[in-house]
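[retry 2/3] Sugar phosphate isomerase/epimerase family protein: previous attempt timed out, resubmitting with same input.
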Amino acid sequence: MALINREQIAGMNIHYMRYSLDYFLQAQVKAGIQSIEFWTGVPHYYLDPTTYSDCKVLKKKIESYQLEMKVFTPENCMYQFQFASVKPEIFEKSLQYFTNGIKATAELGCKIMQCNSGWGYLDEDREEAWKRSKEMLAKLADIAKAEGVTLALESLRPEESNLVTTLQDTKRMIEEVNHSHLKVLVDTTAMGVAGETLQDWFDAFGSSIIHTHFVDGDPYGHLVWGDGKHNLEKFLITLKQNGYKGYLGQEITDTRYFANPASHDCRNMREFEKYM
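[retry 2/3] Sugar phosphate isomerase/epimerase family protein: success.
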């Protein structure tokens, strides 16, 4: 039963951080992947508040492998730049960092840039951190609109944030920012940890869901399909029934995959190929 098109599977380079960019791109071709969600970790790309790597060079390299970049994902968990920074200097640096990310997204011909809520100190009023996150996302949405880019907001796990970690948090932030260029990204790991379902998200957001981080989980772990407890066929049926036409980002972050990521991407694609 055909439930998905091959080009909807968006390979990610985050678990290739110990390998060269060319190795990652070659591995995607070998695995039968056609689309890329590009993670901007410094081994493969440089992005900071003042500058970023030449997008023409990156685009040419990706296209030389007959691949297409569909989503741009600035690193925002391991770096100091985040969406709810408390110190004014770091807030401003973060704003410039993500602004450069939006500009790079546009230069690369992508329409979507990933974002999240960031996090606040656990010993401060959560609402103060929420205000900073909302302010940042509103500013960035304005910049994204000017550049022809849409931001895709994902929820995080409680270990990663104390702000947007559930569907209801996402709904609140989307409604409060209330911007045409801030839409929704469903992360199946955060979703699973929160005890939610894909249908819950489609019931809440419908066509405002423009991207997914679509991976297996236990529910923790951003796992290769077959290594967790999610039902891939059921998930794909839910996508199809709700008319989802976006991409399925393979945000595979468990360190068990870092030594030999190419073999795991091939194994992952074999699970998807049953439904193509």
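[retry 2/3] Sugar phosphate isomerase/epimerase family protein: The chain has a mean pLDDT of 97.
[retry 2/3] clearing retry counter.
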